[in-house]
Amino acid sequence: MGVLGMTASYLLFSLLHFFQFALAVTVCGLYGVDLQRARSQGKYIDGRWVYAEVVGGLAALTALLYLIPFILRFAAVTIWSFIIFVLWIALFGLFGSMYIHEDAEGNGDIQRMKNAVWVNLANAMLWLIGFVASATYWWTHRDRRSRFTGRAKLGRNASTRSTGWTA
Q1: Which helix (DSSP H) or strand (DSSP E) does residue 27 occupy?
Q2: What is the 3-state secondary structure of the chain?
Q3: In terms of pTM, does the model score above 0.90?
Q4: Mind listing the pLDDT tens digit for each residue in 15-74?
């Protein structure tokens, strides 16, 4: 039993997706500063920062869509969560190789990017948790039916006929 008819699993998934959304929007803000600065000065916009914005935007939109209750019942949710996780890991690797070992020396822009790298990793971990949780949820709650007619339910509480054969 949950709060106002919502199950505990839905509430936990909603909390996870809220944090995924919040961190994705944070990443969009952290990288958007440099993109806005480059655009206003008429300078070259680096594709790595655009990639960061695209990943942040996709993750934020996905997290918002995942707050819709019936969406989580589809198997594609698990696959898409894994894809978003891989995108975050790639983003962490891309900017981590650029900024983790960099010494900020009082430079606020470099310090902001060093912080953004760790927010990328936190995002990746949240999406990994979401992937594992949704895969587990889908596996335990899927509707299993017999192969040929589809009428018989299979699973933990379904009755099965014994073939009489023992090893």
Answers
A1: helix 8-40
A2: CCHHHCCHHHHHHHHHHHHHHHHHHHHHHHHHHHHHHHHHCCCCCCHHHHHHHHHHHHHHHHHHHHCCHHHHHCHHHHHHHHHHHHHHHHHHHHHHHHHCCCCCCCCHHHHHHHHHHHHHHHHHHHHHHHHHHHHHHHHHHCCEECCCCCCCEECCCCCCCCCCCCC
A3: no
A4: 999 999 999 999 999 999 988 988 888 888 888 999 999 999 999 999 999 988 777 777
Question: Rounded CA gap, 10 and 13, in Å?
Answer: 5
Phi, psi of 150, rounded to the nearest 5 degrees: 75, 5
**Other CB atoms within 10 Å distance of the CB of residue 152:** 14
